[in-house]
Specification:
The structure is a single chain. This protein has 19 helices and 9 strands. The protein is mainly alpha-helical and 523 residues long. The protein has 3 domains: 148 residues, no CATH class; 128 residues, DNA polymerase, domain 1 (Orthogonal Bundle); 201 residues, hpI Integrase, Chain A (Orthogonal Bundle), CATH 1.10.443.10. The strands form 3 sheets. It has a 3-stranded mixed β-sheet, covered by helices on one side. A 3-stranded antiparallel β-sheet has the order 2-3-4, with helices on one face. Strands 7-8-9 form a 3-stranded antiparallel β-sheet. Helix 5 runs antiparallel to helix 6, helix 10 crosses helix 19 and helix 11 crosses helix 15. It starts with 10 loop residues before the first strand and ends in a 24-residue tail after the last helix.
Length: 523
């Protein structure tokens, strides 16, 4: 079956073979011109729309090198590359079609693409459904003959509804907001993720055009995007950035994987609502570099940060920052959770104070955390400073809960960096989030004999039973185990553990070194 660039019809085709590129707009060699007569009466004919979309978006057999498009094809296991001497995608797509016509018709070359076809109909709302149905039946009949001849292996027709990428995203975000009740900060992150997608496609692009190959290529492009590209108001064109090598820090693999998780979630939503038949965001996650992950502090570093005093007078007092860092280590709470914490969230249940975290990163983040003496001491110190109800940095209300670029978080991390640099320590792999890791790694020491599940519950990780109010009140045994776990983490022990020269990441190998702690709690 040959490719005829002048017979582009109402449908697109997908190839079942990974090594042969997808032909998005190829028609069968059958006389179907008479079917276009009623179609032309339809407003904005699909024929013209699809052809325009093809020459403006299709990158098949094209490779851009030094801002010039090349026609690239593999023939007899050899790569043939021909410069098209232009950076205009529309012009190069037309040239590409002429080359393909020459290869298949004049040279009688069998490229053998599209042996298995999926036909996607992309229709306007005003299209005549009766005419479209007649055309579908004619295609099925003609294709049946091609299957008998062996030119086509199989045929399937995608009758799912047509929708643009902008409409898809809008419906997806509405669903997340109104049905799943995600937080505004999460919606903001979703929008940022889709802004990266819009760097490479138009908002009016039909969702069916974005196939598996598109997302594979998109993943490769993401790996070359500078980390702060979207934040730069004077940024260069994205194509210019991708074509020229630079020393800017790129998006890390973990961030790229998160973006594609959102894209996959979008396509799952579209499949459930019959806009597409198959989720085409089916790509492998990039391997994340563990070295880029934040590490926990050494005990010596913890002690230093808890007592660190700056020589410069800033907006935040040393005491405020010291208490903030200690509180993070003692509770294992996230930065946003601590900044959102108010004194009204400290309650008393069964003669023991608890921290009621009402909002968090996800559903499991909503939990109750018992306090201990060190936590209560910090709360007592902070109480007189509060005028608006917040436990920490009560004097700063603007952007205190911003998901990105939080001013308080920036100042605290700068303070931590300054201390580590002064001590000639590696500051690139440690941040405020490291306190949370210290919390879990301290409690998991063998001497305390605390179950990992208990630690996960305190940190708001996903478990079968999360710490809800009902659960906390009814289950006394579990409540006592949580109280015991929280009593095991104390500021005064940091100095002791430092003197033992125990680095957090080294597990205690035997139980012979277990010290006896008497907290007066029966388990």
């Amino acid at each position: 079956m040959y490719h005829n660039p002048y017979q582009i019809g109402l449908f697109t085709f997908e190839n079942s073979y990974g090594h042969f590129p997808t032909r998005r707009t190829i028609s069968l060699q059958i006389p179907i011109k008479r079917d276009f007569v009623p179609i032309k009466r339809v407003k904005n004919t699909t024929f013209l729309q699809l052809y325009k979309q093809y020459i403006n978006t299709n990158l098949q057999y094209l490779q851009k090198i030094n801002n010039i498009y090349y026609f690239v094809i593999r023939i007899n296991k050899k790569i043939i590359k021909q410069s098209l001497k232009s950076n205009n995608l529309r012009f190069c797509n037309i040239q590409k079609l002429k080359i393909l016509k020459y290869l298949t018709k004049e040279l009688k070359m069998e490229l053998n693409y599209n042996t298995s076809l999926t036909i996607h109909f992309i229709e306007d709302e005003d299209d005549d459904t009766e005419t479209i149905e007649k055309l579908k039946n004619k295609i099925k009949k003609a294709t049946a003959d091609e299957i008998v001849k062996g030119n086509i292996k199989s045929l399937s027709i995608d009758d799912s509804k047509s929708i643009s990428i902008s409409e898809s995203i809008s419906k997806f975000l509405q669903y997340k907001k109104n049905v799943e009740k995600v937080k505004p900060a999460t919606l903001t992150n979703y929008k940022s993720t889709f802004n990266y997608l819009y760097l490479f496609i138009d908002e009016k692009t039909n969702i069916k055009i974005l196939n598996k190959r598109f997302f594979n290529e998109l993943q490769d492009k993401f790996m070359r995007i500078p980390k702060d590209y979207l934040k730069n108001k004077n940024r260069k064109d994205i194509n210019e950035i991708l074509e020229n090598e630079n020393d800017l820090i790129k998006l890390d693999n973990g961030t790229i994987n998160k973006h594609f998780m959102v894209y996959k979630s979008l396509y799952d939503f579209l499949v459930r609502n019959d806009y597409i038949q198959k989720n085409t965001v089916d790509i492998k996650n990039l391997k994340e570099d563990n070295d880029s992950h934040k590490e926990e502090f050494e005990y010596e570093e913890l002690e230093g940060i808890f007592n660190y005093q700056t020589s410069k007078k800033g907006k935040d007092s040393d005491n405020e920052c010291q208490n903030f860092c200690k509180f993070a280590y003692l509770t294992g709470m996230r930065l946003s959770e601590i900044l959102n914490l108010k004194f009204e969230d400290i309650e008393n249940i069964d003669n023991h104070k608890i921290i009621d975290i009402k909002e968090g990163k996800n559903k499991t983040s909503i939990r109750l955390i018992p306090t201990n003496q060190d936590i209560e001491k910090i709360l007592k110190e902070q109480q007189p400073k509060s005028k608006n109800g917040y436990v920490f940095f009560d004097y700063e209300l603007k952007n205190r809960l911003a998901p990105k670029g939080n001013p308080i978080g920036k100042r605290i991390n700068r303070r931590i960096n300054n201390y580590l640099i002064e001590q000639n320590k590696d500051h690139t792999k440690k941040s405020f989030h490291s306190f949370r890791k210290n919390f879990s790694q301290t409690l998991i020491l063998e001497r305390f004999n605390i179950k990992e599940q208990t630690i996960s519950k305190l940190m708001g990780h996903s478990t079968s039973d999360n710490i809800t109010r009902k659960y906390y009140i009814r289950d006394k045994v579990e409540r006592d185990s949580l109280i015991y776990a929280m009593s095991c983490i104390r500021i005064e022990d940091v100095s002791t553990l430092k003197n033992e020269n125990l680095y957090i990441s080294t597990n205690e190998s035997t139980s012979s070194n277990v010290r006896k702690y008497d907290y007066g709690i029966s388990l």
